[in-house]
Design a protein that fits this description.
By secondary structure, this protein is α/β, with parallel strands linked by helices. The chain folds into two domains: 304 residues, Alkaline Phosphatase, subunit A (3-Layer(aba) Sandwich), CATH 3.40.720; 65 residues. The chain contains eleven helices and seven strands. It has a seven-stranded mixed sheet, with helices on both faces. The two termini are 43 Å apart.
């Protein structure tokens, strides 16, 4: 889009939490003929590229009665509704490149040896949902995001980074001419895929074993596209839900200050059952008037500078505060108790580029939350983060006994 999004502070407040202050009737939310499923399970994943200052993030004590930390104090009103974990990761290295493995446990460049490559938890959940919702998943974020979401065939899903574009996808009904063009486009793409598949079948008999493996990877990608086409086709003629908020206008962008608006839109996407899987990405570079010393990325390399740490914790505070507001909105929309919210980062320490001991929170879902779980720190006893993701997928309804580098389910916490 060529236009730019502009929201002044007053418009931003008007278009965010206040919009969900009154209960929304089902008849106003749904534009479709079928009634909404009252209690579908949902999954939201939120990832920040640069992590959080470890010394201020992790509590010093364990259990439900843990003493809160300077960073987590901004979530204290919700402390009974989430669990924070210490000493979790998948042994991934690579600094910034390692961040892309947060939701999969597997880096893109090491994924060839795994059956599902580096597919992320959100996309595994989206496959389970299939065409039950208009969008099997929604990936949104600031700027170019943080390589958080990957399909089964190892393809990255870039985030929608424009709130106006997300609003249009959720609530603006296309006219008949546009829908007709979309039908034609889908038919054309389907015919191209048919031709590719037929050619590949003929070619396969002439290939070596190695080349057959490459062809199989390619055909897997083709099948992923076909699934998306089928899902799009199923929903193309169905009416979109009515929007309970004013249209989001495409104007000048405000970057980090757009987070509340994105959270509102994602809440509405869940509430209207437009999707049951959503991902939000916070990159390592964004603009904000609050930072007085260098860039956000530069602040992460603080070298214990008091001035830089003070500025860095302004960002951490803002991100945690907005996450708390997001929980409030989901509670007001009555979707929080049926939504598992995965929150954290694939960066454990931005200053040293460490991908170990990641900041991880699991919230909502009506689960038996346990405050602060301290996992074993000894190398031979460490619990893979993928175990927690496997348990979360099973809670969601995915029938699987493995995910990423899992060695089993997450036994320290029984998900309700």
């Amino acid at each position: 889009m060529n236009k730019r999004l502009h929201l002044n502070r007053r418009e931003l407040l008007h278009g965010t939490g206040i919009a969900l202050a009154l209960p929304l009737m089902e008849s106003h939310l749904s534009g479709a003929e079928e009634p909404l499923d009252a209690n579908p399970r949902r999954l939201v994943c939120i990832g920040n590229h640069l992590g959080y200052y470890p010394e201020s993030f992790f509590p010093e004590t364990a259990g439900k009665g843990y003493k809160t930390s300077p960073t987590l104090q901004h979530l204290d009103t919700h402390r009974d509704d989430f669990t924070v974990f210490s000493n979790l990761d998948d042994g991934v290295t690579g600094g910034h490149k390692g961040v892309q493995a947060f939701l999969s446990g597997i880096r893109k460049d090491e994924s060839a040896g795994f059956p599902d490559k580096n597919m992320t938890i959100d996309q595994a959940a989206a496959e389970h949902v299939g065409s039950a919702t208009r969008f099997p998943s929604i990936t949104a974020g600031l700027d170019d995001g943080t390589d958080l979401s990957w399909t089964r065939s190892g393809v990255r899903i870039p985030p929608v980074n424009n709130p106006a574009q997300l609003f249009e996808a959720l609530f603006v009904q296309s006219d008949a001419a546009t829908i007709g063009k979309e039908h034609a486009r889908l038919r054309h793409r389907a015919s191209v895929l048919d031709a590719l598949r037929e050619s590949a079948g003929t070619l396969e008999r002439q290939l070596s074993v190695a080349d057959r493996q490459k062809l199989d990877q390619y055909l897997t990608s083709v099948r992923d596209v076909e699934k998306q086409l089928q899902m799009s086709q199923a929903w193309l003629d169905k009416s979109k839900p009515h929007s309970p908020i004013d249209p989001v206008v495409d104007r000048e962008r405000m970057h980090i200050e757009e987070i509340p608006l994105f959270y509102d839109l994602l809440t509405l996407a869940l509430q209207t059952d437009s999707t049951r899987v959503a991902t939000f990405e916070i990159p390592m570079g964004f603009r904000t008037s609050e930072l007085k010393v260098g860039s956000y990325h530069g602040l992460s390399h603080h070298s214990k500078s008091e001035e830089r740490l003070e500025q860095l914790q302004i960002v951490d505070t803002y991100l945690l505060t907005q996450f708390g507001h997001f929980i409030n909105r989901m509670k007001e929309a009555q979707v929080f108790d049926h939504t598992a919210v995965v929150w954290g980062s694939g960066m454990g320490n931005g200053s040293s580029h460490s991908n170990r001991n990641l900041p991880v929170i699991l919230a909502g879902g009506g689960m038996n939350h346990q405050g602060h779980i301290v996992c074993p720190v000894e190398e031979h006893k460490r619990v893979p983060l993928s175990n927690l993701w496997l348990s979360t997928l099973q809670w969601f309804g995915v029938e699987s006994d493995r995910f990423g580098k899992s060695t089993g389910t997450f036994s320290p916490m029984k998900l309700a």
